[in-house]
Amino acid sequence: SLYLCFILETDECQSDPCKNGGTCKDLPAAFVCQCPDGFAGIHCEKEVDACDSGPCQHGGECENDGGSYLCVCPEGFFGYHCEIASDPCFSNPCGSRGYCLSSNGSHSCTCKVGYTGRNCAKELLPPTTLKVERVEDSGVSISWRPPEDQAAKQMIDGYAVTYTSFDGSYRRTDFVDRSHSAHQLRALASGKAYNISVFSVKRNVNNKNDISRPVVLITRTRPRPVEGFEITNVTASSITVQWALHKVKHSTVNKVRVSIRRLGDQEDRVVELDSTADKYTFWDLLPGERYIIHVTTLSGLGTEDHPSESLATAPFHVWTRPLSPRNLTSSRVTATSAHMVWEQPPPGASVEGYIINVTTSQSVKSRYVPNGKLTSYTMRDLQPGQRYRLSVTAVQNTEQGQMHSDPAHLYIMTSQRDGSSDRRWSQGGHPRVLRNRLPPSFLPDLRLLADREVSEEPSQPPRFTELVDGRGRISAKFSSSPSKSVTVRSHDHRNCSINPCQNGGTCVSGMDSYSCDCGLGFKGRHCELSCKKVPHPCTRLYSETKSFPVWEGGVCHYVYKRIYRVHPDICYKESCEGTTNKKTPSRY
């Protein structure tokens, strides 16, 4: 240390003013004392402590040594002033909010979830109000709100959306910019549950991003709807629907929900079926009414599985058939006409008209009568002695076109022109006709087999009586004289001692023969034919007579024209197969 002393023009060094070994030097009009280490002052009278300035860093201890100092460094630091750290993380600069990493004498903090900053001193807030906006069979739309604190909101660079399937087969993370608060999750499997988490993200230079605590929800994608949904059968009181479930596409489907609602009703009739079912019939419906049908699939029906429902198929609008005409009977059957009568439809039934069909073994004639209040009709231009099947079908107009009821059938037999024979008719029965005929000229004479020894005598031309019924049986009696007669019948003479009826048929004994009362679905002489009704699409042709006004010479004339219409419908044909390998003999 140098001190300048200003003294009057005298030689002060002669008096040796410097102490503690200081050296005095004369200056013009002054002197100065050059003090050794550890001393200071004008005359080097003060002892100096070198540690007073605190030169040691990071908690190093300073030791004074004759005007100089020495820093004793703590563990983890070295250098003249303990300024160099051998382990930068020794002092735990990240605290309990992060993990310290040392590199090249420096450190960096990897913050725990929910913290950010150089030493993880700042809290990173998560988004709020996470919810599902829309669910589809292959995607989910979600939305959320940013943190409410504005400072925390500005600190965020974006959001991380992570979604994982429950079975662990799928995991993905998408980054969303902070300017957006919604996201669409795509390419998901149908009918599966997913765990969705959304994090706030703060990007760092070292590419080690800080994230907040997540906000979480669980949802399930919709299963795929059914395929091939169709209406297979419609009656006046039932509707049958059918669908298909693909084994791969619908592997997550647990149930199929089918609902039906009559137009105007407030509640649906709902039924849930197992995934193995592919058909269902709704019963106890009202005739001639419009019904709306929906079908959906269900996945994850357990309470812990977050169940989901597929989008419903396009609603099917189906009208049940109107009621068939009831108690159809016939009266006044002549050789060329027949009069039919049926009951008036019940109140509320909106019948627009009737289709009258006349069927023979060779042809079918049809006519449409546009009168919903009709309760009787006369068929004309019939052939004498002909068997007919008459049917009446109610017609109702709907938005999908005309709906036809099941036809009501009636079997009749027109009388002969001479009126000599008795005729019978019944509804759905088998008419019986008794006809008397003269034998043909070439009919041979018949005699009893036991009369071999009786001499042949000229006999009168034999007569025979033929009885024909609807079951195909023929009984004929030949006679040449009142005393001798031969009876020939087309059926066997066996009785019911040995039941000849097959497939559960019941044998009924008669006077000279038997008959088989067959069970449902069987027909034939011995119930040997298995029959069933097979539905197939068909069309019905009917005619309608309309009047058209025509002006001629200032006079309005009405011209009547017949219009033919074709209506698609579902018909049933009977298919019969033999239940035995033996060929059934034909009987005439």
TrEMBL record:
One Gene Ontology term from the biological process aspect of the record: Notch signaling pathway
Keyword Iron-sulfur appears in the UniProt entry: no
Keyword RNA-binding appears in the UniProt entry: no
Source taxon at top rank: Eukaryota
Matching SMART domains: EGF, EGF_CA, FN3
A molecular function GO annotation: calcium ion binding
Occurrences of domain Fibronectin type-III (ranges): 126-221, 222-323, 324-418
Keywords: Disulfide bond, EGF-like domain, Glycoprotein, Repeat, Signal
Domain EGF-like, chain residue ranges per copy: 9-45, 47-83, 85-121, 492-528
Protein name as catalogued: Sushi, nidogen and EGF like domains 1
Native organism: Vombatus ursinus (Common wombat)
